[in-house]
Write a structure and sequence with these properties.
- The chain is an alpha+beta fold.
- Helices cover about 40% and strands about 25% of the residues.
- It has 10 helices and 20 strands.
- The strands form 4 sheets. Strands 6-15-19-17-16-20 form a 6-stranded antiparallel barrel. Strands 2-1-5-4-3 form a 5-stranded antiparallel β-sheet, with helices on both faces. Strands 7-14-12-9 form a 4-stranded antiparallel β-sheet, with no helix packed on it.
- Strand 4 and strand 5 form a beta hairpin.
- It is elongated.
- About 25% of the residues are buried.
Length: about 475
């Protein structure tokens, strides 16, 4: 009922700015403040109720489910979902749903939660704020699939400001959309801190597995624990073969180096490393231009020496004629040598195999020096497997042991061999001090290539299973403690 004390006769209302108008403005201001205070009180009451309910939860899942149900009741929404990411770099997932009977649209709901978390601001459909209509594609698709007439989503973040998820209300009470928006905005920080707190207390995957094994044993099945311990103790005493792991690399059994037979410019290279060649195949050719020039000069010198010899004979200068004849013979021998070189300008392979080294394509036209190594050729059909045995495993390896290995280039093949030799001196390979063992294997298919690498296992003597598993850790502990 209207208070008679505030009724003002219209005839008595003064001009603008008079005392009666001031009283009406003051009354309206007081009413707005009272409404604002009442709204704040309701929001504070709802936040305290949420906090009280969540304090009674024991784990992360219970917190999320209880929060979704409570928010659904406070907002009178058809459905409330909470999306959350376990870590800052993980994907968002739906962790709670007030409507547990429906599992549809999970993918779209997850995408909407990811979108709201990335936006970092309240998302509302239909959108009343035209300045806040961006990045709502996934949210619109989800609302269409869920046949929602209204939607309000609030982002959730941790203390560091990283987006962690969102709380989404579908079809809240249409008569109190502003109240729902303010309620979710107030509850968002408290809910984020609660979820992050319980998330940090969640056991890891291996801890859950360990608990699932230990808890039944610690309860009604203590005798089973004793049986398992006894079984493991006996199992550790069973002798099994000890396999020494080591890296391996293929090397050729024999190596042949092809050198330049004489000086001359390189004209053409016909092979590259990795090419398979047969015996007497041409590997490269030497340019004959300089040899032809030298032959032309020697032919002229030879004619001059022959003419000089004839003239000295006519003059009966027998000593001079003999010297001239010897000079002609020297020139003749040099000519024959150059003719031999001209006839052997092609550098040929001395055996069948694969070209291991000698990439000279960029060196065509450059002068060669006699004896300069041009190519390295390794024969196929047999290879040496060099096994890099770690220094701490050398005591368990000796000649004659079986070796099983595989190559990275041929992972589907298991190769076997016998350890024939162990180098007596350690080498430094890949920053490790190792001893090189050698295994000879046949390669009938010619598929193995020098330089191939892989992994090998030397089948050593039999030891108890416990020794195989823990002897390295035991010796490391002894050295650390100084025993």
């Amino acid at each position: 009922m209207l208070d008679p004390s505030i009724i003002v006769d219209t005839n008595q209302v003064p001009a603008a700015g008079g005392p009666a108008l001031v009283s009406l403005e003051a009354f309206e201001k007081a009413r707005r403040q009272a409404d604002l205070g009442e709204t704040r009180g309701k929001l504070l009451s709802a936040a305290l109720e949420l906090q009280t309910e969540l304090d009674g939860c024991r784990d992360f899942d219970a917190v999320a489910v209880q929060a979704a149900r409570l928010i659904a009741g406070l907002t009178v929404a058809r459905r409330v979902q909470i999306a959350w990411r376990d870590q800052a770099t993980a994907d968002v997932r739906i962790v709670a749903d007030s409507d547990s009977t429906s599992t549809a649209d999970v993918v779209l709901a997850t995408a909407a939660g990811e979108e709201i978390a990335a936006r970092g601001s309240i998302a509302e459909l239909p959108c009343t704020d035209h300045a806040n209509r961006h990045a709502l594609l996934a949210t619109r698709q989800y609302c269409e699939a869920a046949a929602a007439s209204s939607f309000i989503g609030v982002p959730l973040g941790d203390r560091n400001g990283n987006p962690r998820g969102a709380v989404m209300a579908i079809d809240p009470d249409p008569a109190s959309l502003d109240h729902t928006r303010n309620l979710l905005a107030v509850m968002g920080p408290a809910l984020s801190q609660k979820l992050a707190h319980f998330q940090s207390m969640q056991p890891r995957h291996w801890e859950r597995i360990l608990r699932s094994v230990i808890e039944p044993v610690a309860g009604r099945h203590r005798h089973a624990a004793a049986l398992i311990a006894a079984f493991l103790s006996v199992l550790m005493l069973i002798p099994v073969g000890y396999n020494v792991p080591a890296n391996c690399e293929l090397q050729p059994v024999h190596r042949r180096f092809v050198a330049a037979p004489f000086d001359g410019p390189l004209e053409k290279v016909l092979v590259r490393p990795g090419d398979v060649v047969e015996k007497e195949d041409t590997l490269a050719r030497i340019n004959s231009r300089e040899i032809e020039y030298q032959l032309a000069g020697l032919r002229a010198d030879l004619k001059r020496a022959e003419q000089e010899t004839k003239g000295l004979v006519v003059e009966h200068d027998f000593a001079g004629s003999n010297i001239a004849r010897l000079e002609a013979r020297r020139i003749q021998l040099e000519t024959e040598l150059l003719q031999y070189q001209r006839d052997h300008l092609e550098i040929r392979s001395p055996l069948s195999g694969v070209v291991v080294d000698g990439d000279l394509e960029t060196a065509e036209g450059t002068p060669l020096t006699k004896g300069e190594t041009l190519f390295e050729i390794a024969p196929l059909g047999e290879m040496i497997v060099e096994i890099a045995i770690a220094e701490e495993d050398l005591a368990y390896v000796r000649k004659g042991m079986e070796v099983e290995f595989y190559l990275h280039a041929l992972p589907d093949r298991n190769l076997h061999g016998v350890l024939k030799h162990i180098h007596p001196k350690a080498e430094l390979r890949d920053h490790d001090n190792v001893f090189i063992g050698e295994v000879y294997i046949e390669d009938e298919e010619n598929v193995l290539r020098p330089g191939m690498r892989g992994r090998s296992w030397v089948q050593s003597d039999r030891h108890p299973l416990g020794w195989n598993l823990f002897h390295k850790a035991y010796f490391a502990l002894r050295h650390t403690l100084g025993w």
